[in-house]
Amino acid sequence: MQIRSTTDDDLDVFIDTVYAAFGRFPETPIEGGGLWWSALETDRCLLARTADGRPVGTAAAHSFELTLPGESLVPVSGVTAVGVLPSHRRQGVLSAMMRHQLAQLRARGEFLSVLLASEAPIYGRFGYGPATYTARVTVPRHRAALAVPRGRGAADGPATGATDGSVEVLRRAECGETLEEIYDRYRRAQPGALSRPHRWWDLRAGQPPISPAPRYVAVHRDADGAPDGYASYSIESGTLTVDETVTTDDTAFTALARFVLGHDLVSKVVFEHVQPEHPLRWQLADFRAGEVSSDTDWLWVRLLDIPAALTARGWFTDGELVLDVEDPFLGEHGRYLLTVRDGKADCVPTDREPDLSLDVRDLGSLYLGGTTAGTLVRAGHIRAHRPDATTLADALFRAERSPHCLHWF
């Protein structure tokens, strides 16, 4: 079997192979673009061929920036389009492609890789761990009233629930540059968020509101008229579905939530991609009106260079931990002393006794602060060697707020 990077001449073969791997047929091009594969970087696509030249597997990677705790922005590879033809599964093709790809990423000097897992059991064995989570919240229209905020003082004026600013309804085609600018400001401050390169918006490659699928967009403007949030939505069979709500502060989110929850001629409002611990349900007058479903993983993280990754993010508690990390897929093992002082970390190899023993996939889950060491210790995945190691790890790895990723790739 041969695995090599593709060229522009291989694109049709690559697309046909990945579609065949998933038992689907390529989409017909439409006016205005919108094909998901148009944003692929050809030199970052891999094609696996048999000895007689038949294509049997694919894998690709996008170039993104990932926002880490502490608002550090780092380059990251977004792994996508991974597939093996049904006729060649369980013959080592996928493992060979994943090993080849990880070697390529390291050769590029990258220390992190991320993906969205189509099936959860697959990617853990390659060292990826779930690191951000997302849920759907459904609110019946007749129970959609927002509560009056209780944390107001007399100086704040009457508690009417009104907010400064305004909401304007636009068609997706009218506000592309505005959406791109708002999203970019949002993702730079949100741990776990990925960049959306301009070419994605330009090619309209992805899911709404990037794609050309018809959508209305509610754009919020602050008291000075500057756009600071949007909600992309559609209505079908009496259900208003919000693809994503992107804001730079809670005031804008509340205004947009009030707008969609107050929309006439709908029976329910569905908010997709609500991050853990979001205050939306607490903002409802009837707490039980917000029904949570599809509570699932989203972004999976894989560390390729542990010291580089741990020193790149910000930290919010001082302390020392010795991490004993196994990487079964790459056949590697390392023990590292992590020392955090004043928000910065130092990470060096050590022969000291470990505080925690863990798999590299578990370190990926801890990395953005969306999964606690305590949870993984209780699950039997991490071994704590001293009583206070778990508590310290929970404090060290926490983020300033829950990591969340909206971007699909």
Kindly list the characteristics that best describe this protein.
3 domains, Aminopeptidase, 32% strand, 7-stranded mixed beta sheet, alpha+beta, 409 residues, Nonspecific Lipid-transfer Protein, Chain A, 11 helices
Word description of this protein:
By secondary structure, this protein is α+β, with helices and mostly antiparallel strands. It has 3 domains: 109 residues, 3-Layer(aba) Sandwich (Aminopeptidase), CATH 3.40.630.30; 163 residues, Gcn5-related N-acetyltransferase (GNAT) (Aminopeptidase), CATH 3.40.630; 87 residues, SCP2 sterol-binding domain (Nonspecific Lipid-transfer Protein, Chain A, 2-Layer Sandwich). A 7-stranded mixed sheet has the order 1-2-3-4-5-14-6, with helices on both faces. Strand 9 and strand 10 form a beta hairpin.
Q: What is this structure, in a nutshell?
A:
The chain has 409 residues and is of the alpha+beta class. The protein is 23% helix and 32% strand. The chain is built from 11 helices and 19 strands.
Give a quick account of the main beta sheet: strands, pairing sense, barrel closure.
7 strands, mixed
Instruction: Estimate what percentage of residues fall within beta strands.
Output: 25-35%
* Name of the CATH homologous superfamily of the largest domain: Gcn5-related N-acetyltransferase (GNAT)
Distance between the termini: 27 Å
DSSP, total strands: 19
Q: Find the CATH topology of the largest domain.
A: Aminopeptidase
Q: Name the helicity range.
A: 10-25%
Order of helical and strand elements = EHEEEHEHEEEHHEEEHEHEEHEEEEHHEH
**CATH architecture assignment name of the largest domain:** 3-Layer(aba) Sandwich
Low-confidence stretches: 157-161
Mean pLDDT: 95
Class from helix and strand fractions:
alpha+beta
Rounded to an integer, what's the Rg over CA atoms? 23 Å
In the residues, how many domains can be counted? 3
**Contiguous helical run count:** 11
Just give the CATH class of the largest domain. Alpha Beta
